[in-house]
């Protein structure tokens, strides 16, 4: 970590000085620090204070890596982050989205939560909230959903609040209940974290309960802003958690679930009524095969090391369970295109679908159609070498359009 200056001018003084800075420089500096924040910056107003800090370091450390310097200086460690829900979310009067980092203390563990506020956000104005649940992670990286999968950009475009929830570092991949060795064949073994709950792809970690933790996060978000709707957007193992939450949380607390490259276990509990469902799976996914069970890559090893839940995996049961929960006929309208097969479940053909499922004809175990970030496909996750482009399938936009239009549920129409 680079040494910080002995004494920084007050944030209020920096904020005053920056007023003369052009809007373009403001945006450029803000991008440099990737919207880093601490409880102090939040109190002063993240947009102005963080940008001012970036400009200060650019001036004081010529030739240095200003982005890295500011991140190291101003991104608070977990024990310094403000507790989520301690007070109302601040308004964001800037023309850029803002990331606020919080922590949530629950079930003997602490998790980091990043709340992305769109431009011109006001806590008293009803806004839809999209909770982001990533899959199994290596070395607990943050930002995959907001950054690589494009949800910060999507939130800004559609005026949504995006809440990225990280896994507990205590919830690690094990082999027969034992921690994996620190090195394998002389090479460092990355720390692999996962969600911990019943009916997930991996076994539940003793003492860690992500259902309980999410309920606490959900409650605190409701208390810190005016919420229009609550939606879960998840990838891979995050989708199994989303399904569990849709089955166990109080009726009416979740309005929509969008699962990408995910599944449901055959013994998972029934979904609560009134929740819209959006599901995307690839015919060529080598990790979560659409026909069920473990795949030829990665997941084939899970039963061998004591994680047998994958043997109960049935991806296409997701749409059936959500349709049944909303009393929908199990005779969907089917549309076949060169890129995907689409199935829509509604009360009638003239009714807006309440459950929709896409079976992609190409692509692998990855987020299809993302137009930002690197690593959209790898030889490890992509079975047939093809990817689904943003033009072919803009996943995020499709999810938002589906959830934000025709919010009335099929159950209320049918009864």
CATH architecture of the largest domain: 3-Layer(aba) Sandwich
CATH class of the largest domain: Alpha Beta
Note the overall shape. Answer: globular
Q: Give the averaged pLDDT, no decimals.
A: 76
Helix content: 25-40%
* Number of helical regions: 12
Fourth CATH level, the homologous superfamily of the largest domain: Alpha/Beta hydrolase fold, catalytic domain
Measure the end-to-end span: 62 Å
Radius of gyration in whole Å, from Cα? 22 Å
Question: In this structure, how is the largest beta sheet organized?
Answer: 11 strands, mixed
- Give the neighbour order of strands across the main sheet: 1-2-3-6-4-12-13-14-17-16-15
The unreliable regions are 1-6, 18-75, 183-187, 373-385, 407-415
Find the CATH topology of the largest domain. Rossmann fold
> What class do helices, strands and sheet pairing give?
alpha/beta
Strand content is 15-25%
| Number of domain modules | 2
> SSE string, helix = H, strand = E?
HHHHHEEEEEHHEEEEEEHEHEEHEEEHH
Q: Give the tally of β-strands.
A: 17
Describe the model.
By secondary structure, the chain is α/β, with parallel strands linked by helices. It has two domains: 11-76, no CATH class; 81-414, Rossmann fold. Helix content is 27%, strand content 20%. It is built from twelve helices and 17 strands. The chain has helices spanning 11-18, 23-32, 39-44, 46-60, 66-74, 144-148, 151-158, 210-224, 237-248, 317-325, 395-404, 410-414, and strands spanning 82-83, 98-106, 109-117, 127-133, 137-138, 161-165, 174-175, 178-179, 183-184, 187-188, 192-193, 227-235, 256-260, 276-282, 333-336, 340-345, 355-360. The strands form four sheets. An eleven-stranded mixed beta sheet has the order 1-2-3-6-4-12-13-14-17-16-15, sandwiched between helices. Strand 7 and strand 8 form a beta hairpin. The protein is globular and about 45 Å long. The model is unreliable at 1-6, 18-75, 183-187, 373-385 and 407-415 (pLDDT under 50).
